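Title: Prediction job returns without error message
Component: structure pipeline
Severity: low
Priority: P3
Assignee: unassigned

Description:
Job completed but the reporter wants confirmation the result is attached to the right record. Sequence as submitted:
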Amino acid sequence: MKKLRIFLAGWAVITLLTAGVVLVNSLVSNPVSADSETYEELKLFTEVLSIVKSSYVEEVKTKDLIYGAIRGMLKTLDPHSSFLSPDAYKEMQIDTKGEFGGLGIQIGIKDGVLTVIAPIEDTPAWKAGLKAGDKILKIEGEPTKDLSLMEAVHRLRGPRGTKVTISIFRKGWKETKDVTIVRDIIKIKSVKKKVIDKEIGYVKINQFQQRTAVELEKALRNLQEEGIDSLILDLRNNPGGLLKAAVDVAEQFLPENKLVVYIKGRTGKKTEYFTRGNRPFYNWPMVVLVNQGSASASEIVAGALKDWKRAVIIGVKTFGKGSVQSVIPLSDGSGLRLTTAKYYTPNGISIQNTGIEPDIEVEIPVTDGKGHPVLREKDLKRHLDNEQVKEKDEEKERKDEKKREIIPVKIDEKNDLQLQRAIDLLKSWEVFREMPAEIKGDVKDNL
């Protein structure tokens, strides 16, 4: 039997922090086989490979050609199936753990330049004074121009205690500055918490990693000790992650033996995931915040809590990624990421291309003119269809969308209408709960 690692991922932003792709183990009992027709078609491939090797104007490596062919093959499938080089496969494994040797910065390519998105507090990068917007022009004296994000991550990460020198330029500076930073173990917390107005607990889950459920359990216990009486679970802009983590998160709010999600592959065989009751579950009045960036494992949690009527969902329709990928390790250390199933909420609903509809829709308007268009699963090329949605319904929805949604680039808490609506709802919930029974009856009669 060959072990597969199955994960549910939104879109992976490859950074030093990395919104991780997370895994759960599975077994495959059917070995890969090829029929005679497949072998016949492979003759064409070997023919082209031989011609390129012998006749191309410059010498090329066979492995480069093979890798390129594999990438091209997977690009004919859905947008979440892809080939991972050995380095990319290693990075993915590191990312799912939420712990690595590095500097502690999020990076991205902005206007063609490697740029610091944000330093992580109390990490080497933060202590060295790096700031959001700093441009990284060189790493160990080597220019970063034309360097891919993955290559940059590979160069900046390293064992704890080793040094790396980067040349940065900041707006307002006249010249670049070299900064030498000693790498350390970076632990990425996927869960953040706080108390709002002394009684409302707030928990933000940034991604679903191996330790997310443990971090959440600790956060909820601390909030309980602080005397909260209701909870906001913020899953906005969470790209997803580990299927097991999603189930473990959901079971902290649901009783034992409740179906959280099930998955179905090409054969139609169902695999179901239930809450286990190996930890206490919390039954505070609860709101879940979602938006267009809530994907995959985030949608599993939101969908389960909605179907079981455990929480009120506030925000806008989620991303709509309802597919499962299996990451298969290959013989040379590379990996194959392949879509192998779709997942369904407890009520049997596929959210592929449709997303989770909030109970209360709250949009955040662009007020300063700085916005960007929304991207969802249905906007991706070669996306999988939702077998539960009729073709004419999809066509009608496309016609109804007269213009693309535009959302703010950055939202301050004071302008966070979704969060404010959640707070108002929980406050009114508490007021209503404290009403005398006879008044509650009158209210019900008048509804």
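Comment from assignee: result matches the submitted record. The chain has a mean pLDDT of 84.
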